[in-house]
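Task: sequence in, structure out. Protein: SulP family inorganic anion transporter.
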Amino acid sequence: MFAARDAWKAGLWAPRHWAGNIVAGVIVGVVALPLAMAFAIASGVKPEQGLYTAIVAGVVVSLFGGSRVQIAGPTGAFIVILSGIVAEHGVVGLQLATLMAGLMLCAFGLARLGGVIRYIPLPVILGFTAGIGIIIWVGQWQAFFGLPPVPGHFFHEKLWFLLMNLPRLDPVTTAVGLGSLALVLLPRWVPTLRWVPGPLLALIVATALQGLLQFPQLATIGSTFGDLPRGLPLPHWPGGGLDRILPLIGPAFAIALLGAIESLLSAVVADSMAGTRHDSNAELFGQGLANVIAPLFGGIAATGAIARTATNIRSGGTAPLAGVVHALVLVLVLLAFAPLARNIPLATLASILFVVAWNMSETHRVVRLIRHAPRADAVILCLTLLLTVFADLVVAVNIGIVLSILHFLHRMASSVDVAPMALPGAALPGGPESRMRALQVRGPLFFAAVESLRAAFRSQDADVLILSLDRVPFADATALQALDDEIAAVRARGGRVILCGADARIRGKLNRMGILSRLGAGDFQPDLAAALDAAGRPHSNAASS
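Result:
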């Protein structure tokens, strides 16, 4: 259910809800202004493209997403991917990749994959977000300290160059950066300023200072990118044909995957704060639609923004109207205040991104998980983080997920127990049960449990072997084939296998695999008591029905 319709059914479009949502929208718009420009510049595009993205995505996701209170726009998580695409394929390539990613996200939503995306393990999420935070932090040193342009493609090359050139920092730029950083953090330290967005405070003060003093060595939006245009551009095709689209399939999938993860994480946070319940599939579709439309207006990739969504909720936002108002505030800024943006120092935007990077990294959660979580989870987190920083985000996420799955399968396999069962009278010499043994399978009978099943069968020297399946919740084809092979081996040496206790689903799978048809008559029983009774009767090798 789209957010606009969900809010309509809940009565949140009624006039009595307008005031609170308009106020929340204005506050979020003010908060989003410096962030949108900072994220755009860090992604390798012009600052106005970040504003275009926030405007378009803000409206589209608010109306067609799956959460009533979600605020979308450019985010820090995308910086690593987008800057890499711009470096390799240019801005047009980034916009084409964003549009393709939007189509993929729409397909994810229509295919109802929203629930699947949420299964990505916490160590992987913390690992790649912390890695992105480190990359953003180091990537802003050049603007923060006024250093020369950074060469190199790999993180370690850039880091080494920055460290070697730190003695060449520009004092004025560094002072503005440090002052801006203090202003960003000031509302956290001064209770009376809690209501003032720190990034906006730093932006206003630093811009006014540069407007008055005009430091020639201080890089600003105007000196680097020129004046901001007033208003939104007309929709247009970014450019490029099939020859440009095919190489962008991989980058587009990376945008789509990260966008899905970020938007659903933000929606979950919103649910916990606002007491709402989002529709994950509608959320993916809404995010996809936003990423299809934004590049047509010169924008870049967008997703749900956790910080802006949280600000919306804390400010009283309860309906999509707040997201629409937030976008209108940004439009008004472009129309009325665009000329003033030329004096915004890049060092101030870098200081804002320093704080964003710290918040993204969630250092306290990373440290706690490394110290207290199982060793395998800590290793997966650290490996994902290192691969994100030194290799590639997509590679890091893929390897992290694969390792998590393999670890889970190992744990699941170790939880499967195929153990002997005590039978009454089985130890009596010469008794009818003396050559009878029983095994019970406890846990899922799947491919990782095959070796346990084979070992248990081959450890039993019995004329009659009863296998109880009453504690098997599910079984797969690999394990059932191994079971069929072991039954055939027992029968080949003159023994007998009786299966019992399987529920309707397991019995259906046994039947489809042909195992029941190859058992002897009476060798499939509903429970252990019936199996023991059947074991005392002569049996035939003819197939049971």
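Residues 79-110 form the longest helix (32 residues).
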